[in-house]
Every structure is written in C-alpha cells, then in structure tokens.
C-alpha cells in the first residue's frame, strides 16, 4: 500500500532530479509542520530523522507516508515508534490536517498532549504509549470522531478520564493503563462506545464501580 502511494512520486522525483522534486507538488503547510515537529526533538540518538532534509521530498522521509489528494501530497501517516526520541510533541503536528495514523510510541516525549491535536480531525489511529507524557487527558480528544484506536498507556497522565471520550463512537480499543489516572470511569464509555472491544485501564487509581453489563467488551482494569 505505501509503495503504491509513493510510486508516482518516485517517478516524478527521479524524472526531474532529486533536488527540485520537493518544490513540484508540495504542501508547504505540511512541510512547515514537519520541520517544526523535528525542531521540538533535540535528541534523536538512532538518527531516525536523519533523512528529514530538504534533499528529498518530505513524503520520502523516514516514518512518513503520504497521500495524493487535491493535487497535493499530504502527510497521511507519521510512525516513528521506539526511536528514543525526546523531548516535545510540537503543536504544529496538528497542522497536518490529513493525518490519519500517528504512532510515536516508546519514545521519551515529556510534554503534555497538545490540546490542538484535535485539529487532526481525520486521525483514526493514535498511539503515544510508553512515553513520559504528563498532565491531563484533554477532553477535546472527544472531538476526534474517526478515532478507532487510542493508546496512551504507560505515561504519567493524571486527573480523571474525560467523559468526552464517550463521544468516540468508532473507538474499538481504549488503552489508558499504567498512568496515574483517578476518579470514576465515565459511564459514557460503557453506554456510548458500542464499537469498543478492548479496554485496558490497569494500574491506575480509578474507582472500582464498574457497570454489571459490559457486553462483549474485554476489560482489563
Ligand atoms: C500551524 O497553523 C497555524 C494556524 O493556521 C499557523 O499560525 C502556524 O504558523 C502553523 N505552524 C506551522 C509550524 O506551520
Ligand atoms: C529515509 O530513510 C528511510 C528508512 O531508512 C528509507 O526508507 C527512505 O528511503 C529514506 N529516504 C530517503 C530520501 O533517503
Ligand atoms: C486549529 O484549527 C483552527 C481552525 O482551523 C485554527 O484556527 C487553529 O489555529 C488551529 N490550531 C493549531 C494549533 O493549528
Ligand atoms: C452519549 O450518547 C448520548 C446519546 O447519543 C448523548 O446524548 C451523549 O451526549 C453522549 N455522551 C457523551 C459523553 O458523549
């Protein structure tokens, strides 16, 4: 799939020479957002982003997959798991308005979750597990209505689970375990999330009151 998406671009780039291909069908907003995201990452010990340079189109950078849409290349997926990246997840990531898939799991990001993540309104896969993220889970995450996989496990999130997550009607997996969350599990999660099949809340300080009928849900709390 990624190969099929990239093929026309590769032909284009080889056709006109590597140096200039980035200016041919560029989305400058996506390019700026990616450069700003990289700016927030002073530590990249494995060189995972070493080919994020202007010598090649951003669609060929490590971890990036693009889609051709409205006569532009747009970033569809950003996946850099397990690269020891630190420190900040830049807010401008949310300027990647076509982003569908974001996996920055198993790194050393320490920032709070950018509130503006909700601008990535097409996101359906969000994995920020096993980082050092702090603060509360923004209620606005409930606006990511296409989300079907949300994994924030093993961070330092505190506060309660926002009831707004009950708006994520397409969610199949909700994985919030191994944080410092407290309070009750919002009823909307059981009442509204009819697609939910996997709920992992293990190792938090959540209230124990669980509804008796949780249907097909496999729950690890
Ligand atoms: C992200 O978008 C906002 C609002 O359109 C803009 O002000 C900002 O400059 C953008 N950031 C980057 C790094 O492109
Ligand atoms: C960047 O690195 C990735 C992973 O090593 C590789 O697949 C990709 O082809 C590289 N891109 C360029 C332009 O060298
Ligand atoms: C999010 O989108 C809104 C509306 O398009 C825009 O005004 C705002 O600047 C965006 N925020 C960021 C951080 O890009
Ligand atoms: C749950 O669903 C009901 C009925 O569709 C809706 O009124 C309510 O706002 C939803 N709750 C949340 C937290 O999304």
TrEMBL record:
Its main location: membrane. Pfam families: LRR_1, LRR_8, LRRNT_2. One of its GO terms (cellular component) is membrane. It is found in: Membrane. It is a single-pass membrane protein. SMART domains: LRR_TYP. Keywords: Glycoprotein, Leucine-rich repeat, Membrane, Repeat, Signal, Transmembrane, Transmembrane helix. Residues 1-21 form the signal peptide. Residues 28-67 form the Leucine-rich repeat-containing N-terminal plant-type domain. The keyword tRNA-binding does not apply. This is Leucine-rich repeat-containing N-terminal plant-type domain-containing protein. It comes from the Eukaryota. The keyword NAD does not apply.
């Amino acid at each position: 799939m990624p190969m099929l998406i990239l093929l026309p671009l590769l032909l284009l780039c080889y056709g006109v020479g590597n140096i200039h291909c980035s200016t041919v069908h560029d989305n400058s907003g996506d390019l700026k957002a990616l450069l700003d995201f990289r700016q927030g990452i002073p530590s990249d010990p494995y060189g995972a982003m070493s080919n994020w340079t202007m010598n090649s189109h951003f669609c060929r950078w490590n971890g990036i997959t693009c889609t051709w849409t409205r006569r532009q290349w747009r970033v569809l997926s950003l996946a850099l798991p397990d690269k020891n990246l630190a420190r900040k997840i830049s807010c401008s990531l949310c300027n990647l308005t076509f982003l569908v898939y974001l996996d920055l799991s198993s790194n050393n990001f320490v920032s709070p979750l950018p509130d503006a993540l909700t601008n990535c309104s097409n996101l359906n896969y969000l994995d920020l597990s096993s980082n050092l993220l702090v603060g509360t889970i923004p209620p606005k995450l409930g606006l990511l209505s296409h989300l079907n996989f949300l994994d924030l496990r093993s961070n330092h999130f505190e506060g309660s689970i926002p009831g707004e997550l009950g708006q994520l009607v397409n969610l199949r997996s909700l994985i919030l375990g191994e944080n410092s969350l407290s309070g009750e599990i919002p009823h909307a999660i059981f009442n509204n999330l009819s697609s939910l099949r996997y709920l992992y809340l293990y190792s938090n300080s959540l209230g124990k009151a669980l509804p008796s009928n949780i249907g097909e849900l496999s729950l690890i709390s």
